[in-house]
Specification:
553 residues; alpha/beta; 8-stranded mixed beta sheet; two-stranded antiparallel ribbon; 20 helices; 37% helix; globular; disordered N terminus
Amino acid sequence: NNRPLILDRHKRGSKASDSTLLNVAICIVGSVVLCCTLVWFYQLISILNVPKDDGVAITRSNKDRSTVTLRQKALSQLMHVPGPHLQPRLPTLPVFAPVPNAEQLMTDTLSGSPTIAGVAAILQKYLSSLHDLQLRLSKQRADISEIIYAYTRLTSEQLSPFDEAYRGRSIFDIREDDSIFISIAAFREHLLDQTLRYAFDNAENPDKIFVGAVVQNCFGLKGGNLPCKTGAQVTGKNKKGMDMTKVSDAPPDVNGIETFCAEPLYKKYCDAGQVRVIYMDENEALGPAFSRYFASKLWGGETFFIQVDAHLEFARHWDTGYIEEVKAARNYPKAVLSSYPPGFDGGGGGKLGTSPGAKLCHCEFSSSDVEDNIIRINVGGIYKGNDERPKQIPFIAAGFFFARSEFLVDVPFDPFLPWCFMGEEIALSIRAWTSGWDIYAPRLNLIAHQYRPGRMGLPKFWGSVGRTWQKPGPGFNTKLGAKTIHRIKNLVGYSESSKETVEKDGMGMVLQDLEYYGAGTIRSKQEYMDLARIDIAKSQCHQLRWCQEGEFD
């Protein structure tokens, strides 16, 4: 009856020496475990006792900007455990999969206990309401004012409370592990799968790459969605030598997320929650600024944020390359890398990683009737290969910028910019710089972009907008955008878009909540205009020699 129980279960005899050895072994193992636990606990207590004054301020201002502390950094390095906000996992597939327990997750998120799934549920609810709203207004043949008013009201009711709940602070704690969140807005994009493969294949640390994709496709679904169409395809020349185009029927778009996640080599990233997706039918696709708002909301606490287009190639070790480059900027951590990447035609990245980067040193006031005199930016210089650190530029490209994720607190994406194609870049530039962020051109090209002339006949969002409102072609979106672009022009300082003028025109709703998505308070807008040498009154952009010559670190 006194035999050890473990030996009794195996019905074997026992000797006193065996029992002694077993007890000694147990004592040794127990001592080792206890020592390790005490060491870990001592480190944890030391971290928790770091004085608050030892914090390393990243973006703290008088208006409660975000902060990264030594305590947070040490905790992050010690405990490599995914935060509870990443559970439950957001379903990647099937398309339009509902978020389980959505109502409770939305309530928790709005009341201060956010999760990625809760955020996605809020966005899905909004998109469903937007779909119903557009369908109803289309049947009623609503005019432009009615459409814009209804959009503004819906956005104020369903998205503004979410933004308000986390205004001035980060929705999730920022992990200090050099993780990167890639924000991608993809409109009927046939290269999305390829872009994701390049990003993960060429990353030095693919396990630290997280994607937030907004997939806006024609899915060919039943239930009131429009039939799929091509873009305006060039079919020949007319008698005056002008291109003739037509729009044809098309099959449903390939879902790049589905094909990416189906490959065994990449499935593990989808299963691990590294690919987060919001799906929109093309009917709800209202332009790049609109969709980038949604993509930014899929951020989950990653250290760095990169916004890119969905048709890119990535250089080898692009991830650590951009991290090292942004840390080399003199104003880091409040530094933004941005440029117009070199183009590719599908034949590989070429000299990616070795070719010198271009500098966004030029702007002009558009003369196009469609673009309504908005400021457009462009390349105006290139690195010569002998710079010790990145050089400042005045402009951010919406198709590529890289920064620490505190950027999302200081320059939150604006949900009130539907139907806009031009203007988001000058708005981003002003908002970032006046919030204390310096903008830099990366010295090397680590990504390449497929630039797409209209002759390719690819679908454009304005074509979907026209069909939604039973007004085929780009014209109706242009009319809607001409009203909402007053929001950007008011921010920039155009006299014709002053608050008084816009309200007199009956379009005051386009300035809704602009105080929360406008210029920052660290530096003045006029200081920015002086830096960028922009004369709004005369509609002139002057030469930026300081930018071309790389005079400012």
